[in-house]
Amino acid sequence: MIDLGTVYLAVTGALLLVTLGVGVRVLSEIVREGRDRQRRRRAGELEKYTEDEEYDRVPGDPVEDNGDDGGADTTCPQCETDNDAAFDYCRRCASPLRPGS
């Protein structure tokens, strides 16, 4: 007779191996894309701050205001992206928005 514990371990092990394989594949694609972007930046094919394809924004575009912060947006001195007044660091390039930050 087949022990259910052994079947459970075999199925769980197989699922973990499949998940590990998919995870490694995704991570390798992320690394490959990062290296490709870095190579293209060094070759001058890409600017340092390019259009953000995911959010369809470019540096300097205004940030949508919910009206809940009560303050004016702060513009980043490095990439000129508008940031919420409560931010200490730029949401795009992580540069300090105020001296001493």
UniProtKB/TrEMBL annotation:
Keywords associated with the record: Membrane, Transmembrane, Transmembrane helix
Residues covered by region (Disordered): 34-76
Domain DUF7577 positions: 75-98
Transmembrane helix listed as a keyword: yes
Bias kind Acidic residues: ranges: 62-71
Bilayer-spanning residue ranges: 6-31
Annotated protein name in UniProt: DUF7577 domain-containing protein
Organism of origin: Halorubrum saccharovorum DSM 1137
